[in-house]
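User: Some background: our group keeps a shared notebook of sequences we're curious about, and every so often someone picks one and asks for a predicted structure to add to the entry. Today it's my turn. The entry only has the sequence so far, pasted here. Could you supply the structure so I can complete it?
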Amino acid sequence: MRYVIFLLVAMNCAYFSWQVFLNVPDRPVQRSLPPLPPDVRRLVTLEESTARRQPPSETRKIEDLTTTQPPEAVLPMTCQAIGPFLAESELKPFEKRIDRLGLTASPQTRYQREQVGYTVLFPSMEYKEALQIKDKLEKENIMAYFIGLDNVLSLGAFRDKSRAENTLARAQALGLDPRIEPGYAKRSTYWLVFQRRDNQDGDLAGLIRKYSGLRVEDMACP
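Assistant: Of course. Here's the predicted structure to add to the notebook entry:
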């Protein structure tokens, strides 16, 4: 009888264990927390905060930009020119000096109109009248020739104003009325043009100190 009771107890324990095993879910139970009040902010990690402020794609763009364009590449550029040189052959020595300062220069030719003396002339007139004046002057050994297509009669170009005034007086003594005007010519000058960033220091003033007439000019960058 005692063994029968033990057997019944063992069967009941086995049945109870079997029922507990059947009631255990295959997946863990996920318990949801109650929602936070609207005036409470959820705590986030530093990584989450950084990712929200700056997407990974933006971070990659900044890294690529830093690689292709280092910080000094975005510094503003200043364009300058050294000159004027009167002969193109004078540029080579200065190109080498500028190169030693870490700058690359390129030659530039400029044209300027400058006064080179004086001219004595008559204003535009009728061709027949101009011929009469020309004949009258040449009889007194005063050379005269036509300028352009407007019958302008010139008595010559003079480097010194005193010589121009002397010719003017001789023509006035014949009852004529020419005038003195400045004479101009187009002259070529040569410059060295270069670009530098604001963090590039070079003793440009010391470079040209020994050469009178040279100067450094700021200019618009191309």
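Suggested note for the entry: The chain has a mean pLDDT of 77. The two ends are 115 Å apart (CA to CA).
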